């Protein structure tokens, strides 16, 4: 197996997860800034590895598998530490919706791959918008302090709520796209 530059960037994103957690829990005034920088750097590698893979045609099966895993690990970790620090019903609900959808869509993609129809559940535009809103929300929530009079944490909460709604919408779109194949497979087994 040859490791491409995009795959190395994905591996770096995974390696940043324990760094994010350690920095977030440091008892220094700047730990929120450092945690936000680590998270934003990880989010940037997500965009960069995709761009490099497309631009220079550096695709690999391992990279295609690892990239969404790295994204889900980083987002789930950021959600868990945010909920632990700001444990409200709404924060827990939004985090549960986002993490639950990620698990469900991963299972759906695996099922569709077994049916030979993985292309029917490819990433759609609403999923890309959801990811963007989610990353911005998490960056704001990790930063958590007002900045230039802007209540960054409150903006992050609202963006996370929007990301959760987009998460439900995109999850519905995946199920809708897969539904004919799932019904056909179900009818075959009868």
Largest sheet: none
Mean pLDDT: 91
User: Which residues form runs of ≥5 with pLDDT under 50?
Assistant: none
Q: How many β-strand runs?
A: 0
Give the percentage of residues in beta strands: under 5%
| End-to-end separation | 41 Å
Alpha plus pi helix count: 6
- Level of helix content? over 70%
Order of helices and strands: HHHHHH
- Estimate nothing, just give the exact number of structural domains: 2
SS class? mainly alpha
Compute the gyration radius: what is it? 18 Å
The gross shape turns out to be globular
Q: Brief overview, please?
A:
The protein has 190 residues and is an all-alpha fold. The protein has two domains: 1-85, Four Helix Bundle (Hemerythrin (Met), subunit A) (Up-down Bundle), CATH 1.20.120; 87-189. Helices cover 81% and strands 0% of the residues.
List the helices and strands and how they pair.
Blueprint: H1 5-24, H2 31-56, H3 61-85, H4 89-114, H5 125-143, H6 152-188
Cofactor: Mn(2+)
Keywords: Lipid biosynthesis, Lipid metabolism, Membrane, Phospholipid biosynthesis, Phospholipid metabolism, Transferase, Transmembrane, Transmembrane helix
Pfam family, one: CDP-OH_P_transf
Protein model, in words:
With 190 residues, the chain is mainly α. The protein folds into 2 domains: 85 residues, Four Helix Bundle (Hemerythrin (Met), subunit A) (Up-down Bundle), CATH 1.20.120; 103 residues. 81% of the residues lie in helices and 0% in strands. It is built from 6 helices and no strands. Helix 1 packs antiparallel against helix 2. The longest helix has 37 residues. The chain is globular, with a radius of gyration of 18 Å. The termini are far apart. The model has no long low-confidence stretch (mean pLDDT 91).
């Amino acid at each position: 197996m040859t490791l491409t530059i995009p795959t190395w960037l994905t591996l770096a994103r995974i390696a940043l997860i324990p760094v994010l957690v350690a920095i977030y829990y440091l008892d220094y005034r700047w730990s929120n800034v450092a945690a936000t920088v680590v998270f934003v750097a990880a989010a940037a590698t997500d965009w960069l590895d995709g761009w490099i893979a497309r631009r220079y045609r550096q695709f690999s099966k391992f990279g295609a598998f690892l990239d969404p895993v790295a994204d889900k690990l980083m987002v789930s970790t950021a959600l868990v530490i945010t909920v632990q620090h700001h444990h409200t019903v709404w924060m827990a609900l939004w985090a549960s919706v986002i993490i639950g959808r990620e698990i469900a869509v991963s299972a759906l993609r695996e099922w569709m791959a077994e049916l030979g129809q993985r292309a029917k559940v490819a990433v759609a535009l609403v999923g890309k918008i959801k990811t963007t809103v989610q990353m911005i929300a998490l960056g704001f929530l990790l930063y958590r302090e007002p900045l230039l009079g802007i209540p960054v944490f409150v903006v992050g909460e609202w963006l996370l709520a929007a990301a959760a709604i987009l998460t439900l919408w995109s999850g519905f779109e995946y199920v809708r796209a897969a539904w004919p194949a799932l019904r056909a497979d179900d009818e075959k087994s009868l």
